Structures are given as structure tokens and as C-alpha cells.
């Protein structure tokens, strides 16, 4: 097929093109980008996605690091002529797609590409709240006065109202939550600023777009809202969705298809009602008494639950038998506040969001206390001042199947970590995609030359108390060989801190500890500090991109099995066992193998990178199940000798 271009070399007639016109040797991308390299895996992935979109099929693609998967799904999505939602794992990746990859692709086309991005409401400014803050006493302290001036000046020129534009606003500004656009206090179409609202404008852009870029949290918040009484959805209708970093969606979906009720929700409802009633001049003794009653009843009720840790909760019937009066009193307090607010005249745009919040809290609390739904695991957690009552689906596969897969023409999952020992069975089963076609695209990197996997044979079992000291000594030897330049990743905060304290005075390298600074600041400091060593936990196992010699070694303390006593993990393993399955092999091992692949993926981010992955848990060679882990990793060289590690770095 001939490709029509204008005088500038841009492509016209984009809908008549095929992905192969872009990704083939000598294709559009090779002509447009001087450093573009042909990758067969990228072409195969793009062609498979093109077919899935055209034939209305579901697809799972594992694309190894270096495949170029972002362009491999964006190009066929653009060419499909359909409205496609692209959902990413993080807001950072979302912004990278919109501000980097999309402009590059736009440079190839003569016609404007209809693309937008959407974030959660808390990322956007509420104009009405900002104007109210100028007239009403909501600002406290010199810091908020300074931040207010920054936001007020920015509001006059911003088109999107996206907080990420405000580089000079402090990351933890106490003012931003007072003026953001979260839905708790939104009056919707009754708001005076509705037509000028940044949320309204975001929705308008989405309705006019063919490609809508979101993150997983917003996507599943929308999917959950679509079937709720107060819902209606956030996204416009679409026919296909592409999930990037798709290995995360089981956990994210579980959050949004579940229930979370906390004492903080009650406190914030009372606080907001008090503040708004005074600012909007509908405060009354009756409303004040209703707020006081809500706070008192909430404190009494939530104090009945365990005040530390995270644990399962299975005795609602017994709990209700002992504490029904405290529970009913809290429901009555919520009903009373609603009734008082509904009696207010002339301020419905201010009272309606408060009433809606109270009723949603009441519905969630009633479900948690009275439903006894066997498909959910119920648990309680204390975090700081917050006491949380949680209900999480034990298995989201059926929900995903009926509410997403059955309703969409095409659902496409992609990630560098979806296959376990070459099989997609685990991902297909957990995500309700048993009928999806699958494709595994190998990484373009030469892992056999670039990576050495080291497992020290002499260390004790990680479950034994003497492991910690032995691991610290081994980490010191490895870091000496690597000359620092390492991530040391742990499966628990306690282990991380223990070993960090043992080593910080013994190492000749600059050391950094997760928690001592914000995540982004730590990564930037690591990148700019020669020979640095970062001690961190599993939250640093993915989404971190450090290319070059600065990261030449990744040390992992143990095989990343999920904590078996965690209530959600325990419920899921119990469900598999009761169904006659083997939870260890069907759930725990595959989950851990995918997590280890994520850790492995931190090491090689470019074709010139090379390094050592050290796993201090020798169960991988001693136990039969270790073969699953070995077979899930890319090709590599293996050693159990520290001398080989030294030789690798001496080359």
C-alpha cells in the first residue's frame, strides 16, 4: 500500500494505514526518528492489537522490556477509528503518554489526533471553591496565604486546571485540598461555575476524543460508579480499552469493587458540614447538634474494633448481637444529619453533596455490617488516626468478566510481567479472561550477556532468625564488588530497617533509606550520587527507570511471597483450597514469580546496561517450586559464587 504524505512528510489518510506501515523496516517511524530500530516483537504486538480491535477480541500481551510496547498499542488504537481508553499504572506514565508519545505521533500525521487525558477530580482546581476562599475565612497561616496567591494567579491562565502544572506549589500544600475539585462537595450542574468548570471541560474534551488516557484508579472508579445509584460514570462510552502495566489491575479493581468505611469519613463529613453551613449562612443549632451527635456516636462505634494492625473480621453476627445499640445509634446520627440538611431552604447546591455523602457512607456501613456476602473478605485496619472497615472481593474475575469483558468489544492487557513460566493461565484466571488470545514478545535485550543472576548457597532459610545477620554480611560483600550502584530491595519494612542499621556504618558508599525523603526525591538523589545504594521495599520494585551504570546491581532479600496472614491473601487462598485447588501452586507461587520479574526488570533498562541480580533466598535452588521462578525470568547467566560477581564487575 502506498502511503500519502504532504510536503512536510506527514501522513494523511491515517485510517487507511496499517501498523506495519509504521513499524516495518524503512517504515514511517524509521524515517521520522533517526535512532529508531526495527523490532520484530514490536511489529508483531502492533499487528496482533490491530486484529483484536478490528475483530472485537480480547488479547493479553507480555512485552519484555525494550519492546517499545507504548507505540505498539498507541498506533493501532489511533488507526482503529474507535474510541479507545488507554489505562496506565501511574499518573506519571499517563503524563508521559500524553505529553511525550502523543506529540511525537501527532508530528507524523497531517490531521489533528483527537486525544485527551483524564485524572481523578482531586487533581483539578475547583473555581468556585477558589472564589469562595477569597471572600470567606478558610485560609490559615502564612503558608496558605502564599499558596493562595500562587493558585489564584495560575487560575487566570491555566486551560486544564491540572495541579501538575503548579511546579511552585509545595507537594503537601494544606491549601490544595480546600480548593480542589473532588466530588464530596460538588454541586454539579447547580454550581455557578459549572460551564467554566475544569471537570466539565475535561468531560467535553473526552466526548470529542478518540483516545482517552486515564490511570487504573480512575478507570475502575468509573466502572464501579456506572452501576451505583448515585453514579453515572466518569468516562464517555468507549468500545475498547488497553491496560498498560496490567499486572496491577486485580488489586486496583478489588479496591473499587469493595467497600471502605472509616471514622475519618465521619469526621470529615461533620467538619465539612460545619464549615459550609457557616460560610453559606445556613448554620443552625439543630445542624450543630446533629454534627456533635455524629462525632460522638462514630467515636463510640469505631472504638469497638481492634485498635492496631490489619486483621480479618468474620464475626459480624456476634458483633451485632453485642453492640447493636452502638451500630443503630450511628445509623440514626447519619439519618438525623441528612434530615436536618434536607430541611434547609435556598442552599440545595451546598446541602445536596453533603446529603449524598452521608447516604453513601450509610449504605457502605450497612453492607459491611449486615450483608455477610461470602464472596467478600471483611477486615479491619488501623492506620494512624484512621480506623477502617474494609470489604474486598475475594475473586474479582467474575466481576471483571461480567462488567468489563462482556460489555467491551476489545479488552487488551499488556505488561512486561504477565506470564508465569511461559503460561498466561494465572493472569487469565485471576482477571476473567480465559477466552482471550495471548502473545508473548521476548525482550530485545541480550540478558545472557547483560545479566548475572547470583544466589549465595550458604545463607540460612530466610524464615530463620539468623538469616538477617547473614544477609547483611552478604550484602556488604556484593556491594563491595559492585562498588555500590545498587538497589537493595526488601519484602518488609522491618527487615529493611534492621539490615540498613547494621550496614550504614560499614559501607563506603552513600546510602539512602526509603522513608527519609519523598520517593521522587530519593530516585533523583540516587541518579545524581556516584556509587549510591538505596535500601527500599516492594514499592520500588516497579515504575523506576534508572539507565546506565548508576544502577548496576539489584539485591533482593527473599522470594516475594505475599504475607499469608494478610486477610485478603488468606481469603483468596482459602477459596482456592475449598474449591479443591492447590493455593500455593495456583496463587502464591505465580504471584511471587511475577513480583520477582518486576524486581528483575529494574536492572536492565537499555541495550547498553549490564548488571547483577542477587537473590539472597536460596530456596529458589533448594525447593522444587524454584523452577517456576527460574522459568519465569528472561534468559540469564547463573552463579552461586561471589567470585563470579567480582569478575563480572571487573570486566
Unreliable segments (pLDDT under 50, ≥5 consecutive)? 1-9
Q: Do you know the CATH topology of the largest domain?
A: Rossmann fold
Net shape: globular
Alpha-carbon Rg, integer: 27 Å
CATH superfamily of the largest domain: P-loop containing nucleotide triphosphate hydrolases
Instruction: Indicate the proportion of strand residues.
Output: 5-15%
Question: Structural class per helix/strand content?
Answer: alpha/beta
What's the β-strand tally? 18
The level of helicity is 40-55%
CATH 2nd-level architecture of the largest domain: 3-Layer(aba) Sandwich
**What is the makeup of the main sheet?**
7 strands, parallel
Secondary-structure blueprint of this entry?
Layout: H1 19-23, H2 28-32, H3 40-55, E1 59-63, H4 69-79, E2 84-88, H5 91-106, E3 115-117, H6 127-135, H7 141-155, H8 176-179, H9 198-207, E4 211-215, H10 216-225, E5 240-244, H11 249-256, E6 259-262, H12 263-279, H13 285-302, E7 310-312, H14 316-342, H15 348-370, E8 376-383, E9 386-393, H16 397-405, E10 410-415, H17 425-430, E11 437-441, H18 447-450, E12 451-454, H19 467-482, E13 486-490, H20 493-503, E14 511-513, H21 519-528, E15 533-537, E16 553-556, H22 567-578, H23 583-601, E17 611-615, H24 619-622, H25 626-632, E18 637-639, H26 642-650
Parallel strand pairs: 1-10, 1-11, 2-4, 2-5, 3-4, 5-10, 12-17, 12-18, 13-15, 13-16, 14-15, 16-17
Antiparallel strand pairs: 6-9, 7-8, 8-9
Helix pairs in contact: 3-4, 4-5, 10-11, 12-13, 12-15, 13-14, 14-15, 19-20, 19-26, 22-23
Amino acid at each position: 500500500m502506498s502511503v500519502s504524505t504532504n510536503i512536510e512528510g506527514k501522513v494523511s489518510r491515517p485510517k487507511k494505514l496499517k501498523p506495519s506501515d509504521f513499524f516495518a523496516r524503512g517504515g514511517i517511524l524509521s524515517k521520522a526518528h533517526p535512532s529508531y530500530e526495527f523490532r520484530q516483537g514490536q511489529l508483531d504486538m502492533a499487528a496482533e492489537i490491530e486484529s483484536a480491535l478490528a475483530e472485537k477480541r480480547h488479547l493479553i500481551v507480555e512485552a519484555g522490556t525494550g519492546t517499545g510496547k507504548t507505540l505498539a498499542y498507541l498506533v493501532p488504537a489511533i488507526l482503529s477509528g474507535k474510541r479507545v481508553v488507554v489505562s496506565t499504572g501511574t499518573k506519571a506514565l499517563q503524563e508521559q503518554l500524553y505529553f511525550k508519545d502523543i506529540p511525537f505521533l501527532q508530528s507524523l500525521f497531517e490531521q489533528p489526533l483527537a486525544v485527551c487525558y483524564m485524572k481523578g477530580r482531586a487533581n483539578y482546581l475547583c473555581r468556585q471553591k477558589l472564589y469562595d476562599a477569597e471572600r470567606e475565612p478558610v485560609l490559615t497561616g502564612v503558608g496558605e496565604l502564599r499558596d493562595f496567591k500562587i493558585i489564584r494567579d495560575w487560575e487566570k491562565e491555566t486551560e486544564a486546571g491540572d495541579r501538575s502544572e503548579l511546579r511552585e506549589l509545595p507537594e503537601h500544600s494544606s491549601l490544595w485540598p480546600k480548593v480542589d475539585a473532588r466530588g464530596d462537595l460538588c454541586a454539579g450542574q447547580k454550581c455557578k461555575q459549572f460551564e467554566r468548570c475544569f471537570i466539565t471541560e475535561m468531560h467535553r474534551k473526552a466526548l470529542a476524543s478518540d483516545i482517552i488516557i486515564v490511570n487504573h484508579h480512575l478507570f475502575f472508579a468509573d466502572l464501579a460508579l456506572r452501576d451505583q445509584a448515585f453514579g453515572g460514570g466518569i468516562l464517555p462510552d468507549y468500545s475498547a480499552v488497553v491496560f498498560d502495566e496490567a499486572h496491577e489491575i486485580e488489586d486496583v479493581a478489588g479496591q473499587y469493587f469493595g467497600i471502605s468505611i472509616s471514622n475519618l469519613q465521619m469526621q470529615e463529613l461533620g467538619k465539612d458540614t460545619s464549615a459550609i453551613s457557616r460560610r453559606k449562612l445556613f448554620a443552625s443549632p439543630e445542624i450543630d447538634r446533629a454534627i456533635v451527635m455524629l462525632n460522638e456516636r462514630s467515636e463510640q462505634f469505631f472504638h469497638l474494633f481492634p485498635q492496631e494492625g490489619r486483621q480479618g473480621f468474620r464475626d459480624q453476627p456476634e458483633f451485632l448481637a453485642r453492640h447493636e445499640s452502638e451500630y443503630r445509634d450511628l445509623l440514626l446520627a447519619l439519618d438525623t444529619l441528612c434530615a436536618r440538611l434536607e430541611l434547609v431552604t435556598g442552599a440545595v447546591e451546598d446541602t445536596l453533596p453533603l446529603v449524598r455523602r452521608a447516604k453513601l457512607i450509610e449504605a457502605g456501613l450497612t453492607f459491611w455490617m449486615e450483608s455477610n456476602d461470602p464472596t467478600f473478605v471483611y477486615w479491619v485496619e488501623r492506620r494512624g488516626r484512621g480506623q477502617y472497615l474494609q470489604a474486598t472481593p475475594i475473586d474479582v474475575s467474575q466481576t471483571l468478566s461480567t462488567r468489563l469483558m462482556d460489555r467491551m468489544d476489545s479488552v487488551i492487557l499488556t505488561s512486561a510481567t504477565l506470564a508465569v513460566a511461559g503460561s498466561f493461565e494465572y493472569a487469565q484466571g485471576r482477571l476473567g479472561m480465559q477466552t482471550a488470545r495471548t502473545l508473548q514478545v521476548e525482550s530485545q535485550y541480550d540478558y545472557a550477556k547483560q545479566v548475572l543472576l547470583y544466589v549465595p548457597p550458604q545463607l540460612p532459610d530466610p524464615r530463620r532468625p539468623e538469616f538477617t545477620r547473614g544477609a547483611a554480611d552478604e550484602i556488604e560483600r556484593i556491594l563491595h564488588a559492585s562498588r555500590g550502584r545498587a538497589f537493595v530491595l526488601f519484602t518488609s519494612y522491618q527487615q529493611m530497617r534492621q539490615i540498613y542499621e547494621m550496614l550504614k556504618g560499614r559501607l563506603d558508599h552513600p546510602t539512602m533509606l526509603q522513608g527519609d525523603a519523598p520517593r521522587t526525591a530519593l530516585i533523583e538523589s540516587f541518579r545524581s550520587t556516584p556509587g549510591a545504594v538505596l535500601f527500599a521495599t516492594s514499592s520500588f520494585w516497579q515504575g523506576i527507570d534508572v539507565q546506565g551504570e548508576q544502577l548496576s546491581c539489584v539485591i533482593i532479600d527473599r522470594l516475594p511471597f505475599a504475607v499469608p496472614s494478610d486477610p485478603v491473601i488468606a481469603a483468596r487462598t482459602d477459596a482456592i483450597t475449598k474449591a479443591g485447588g492447590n493455593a500455593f501452586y495456583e496463587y502464591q507461587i505465580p504471584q511471587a514469580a511475577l513480583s520477582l520479574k518486576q524486581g528483575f526488570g529494574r536492572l536492565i533498562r537499555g541495550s547498553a546496561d549490564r548488571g547483577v541480580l542477587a537473590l539472597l533466598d536460596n530456596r529458589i535452588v533448594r525447593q522444587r517450586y524454584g523452577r517456576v521462578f527460574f522459568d519465569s525470568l528472561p534468559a540469564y547467566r547463573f552463579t552461586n559464587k561471589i567470585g563470579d560477581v567480582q569478575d563480572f564487575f571487573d570486566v
